[in-house]
From TrEMBL:
Keywords: Membrane, Transmembrane, Transmembrane helix. It comes from the Bacteria. The chain crosses the membrane at residues 34-54, 74-95, 107-126, 132-150, 162-180, 186-203, 224-248. InterPro entries: Bax_inhibitor_1-related. Coiled coil: none annotated. The keyword Membrane applies. The keyword Transmembrane helix applies. This is Membrane protein. It is a multi-pass membrane protein. It comes from Brevundimonas denitrificans. It is found in: Membrane.
């Protein structure tokens, strides 16, 4: 996994859990960045999925007998855009040992832009109503899980380590199923994905809270942590949203 999960702080075992204006400001900065990232992703997904000159650069489509144009595959550019976030995250683990605030922010917005562009598939595969409904469900679940991670006194570190291993398993299973195209396996992957990223949302929120106390008011370090924390939560949200769409989304 990339540094954005476990490399931007060494959190203490305990922290002052009292209400703290600085902590609220720090967390608000993270959530604002996540919200803006989701808006940017939605705009890019609409552009790549709906605007023909851009869509045709990214995706292969065809008009089916029922008259609906649907996704049939990726172009070379589309495949590069779809897989580059994972490559960049893995690469950043080696190349960004001590990132500056601008480098951490640049990484965040680069990942947001690439994921948003690749999510034109959502526009091409699912109905608008199911996309909106699933987004609202994901947002409600994300908010509740993040609140739990923020308020719980239980240490989630052990659970988080287990869930991160689960992400690796998900990636492997998903790659295998690209070739197998097994419907039952895809359903199991989707259910597991929802549960894993739901747990990671609570874990990452608690870890961000510990990060704030560990940094001791260092503004430069907190700026870096804000970007990495937003990246963690953004990826959790996007994955929950996509897995829920696979389970319940209405296809075009």
């Amino acid at each position: 996994m990339s540094d954005f999960r476990n490399g931007y702080t060494t959190a203490p075992a305990t922290a002052d859990m009292s209400v703290d204006a600085g902590l609220r400001g720090f967390m608000l900065g993270v959530y604002n960045k996540v919200a803006l990232g989701l808006l940017v992703s939605a705009a890019l997904a609409w552009l790549t999925g709906s605007y023909p000159p851009v869509r045709d650069l990214m995706f292969a489509t065809a008009v089916f007998p029922d008259g609906v144009e649907r996704l049939t595959g990726f172009t070379l550019l589309g495949m590069i855009v779809a897989f580059s976030p994972l490559v960049i995250l893995l690469g950043s683990n080696f190349l960004m040992k001590n990132p500056s605030p601008s480098a951490a922010g640049g990484l965040y917005w680069l990942i947001v832009a690439l994921i948003g562009a690749s999510m034109g598939t959502v526009v091409l595969v699912y109905t608008g109503a199911s996309v909106i409904q699933t987004f609202l469900i994901t947002a409600a679940a994300f908010g509740a899980l993040s609140l739990f991670g923020y308020t719980t006194k239980k240490d989630l570190t052990g659970i988080g380590s287990f869930l991160i291993m689960g992400v690796i398993g998900l990636i492997i299973a998903s790659v295998v199923n690209i070739f197998l195209q097994n419907t039952m396996m895809q359903m199991i992957i989707s259910i597991a994905g929802v549960l894993i990223f739901a747990g990671l949302t609570a874990y990452d929120t608690q870890r961000l809270k510990m990060t704030y106390y560990a940094l001791g008011g260092n503004q430069t370090a907190m700026s870096v942590a804000t970007s990495y924390g937003a990246l963690s939560l953004y990826i959790n949200f996007i994955n929950m949203f996509q897995f829920l769409l696979m389970l319940f989304g209405g296809r075009r």
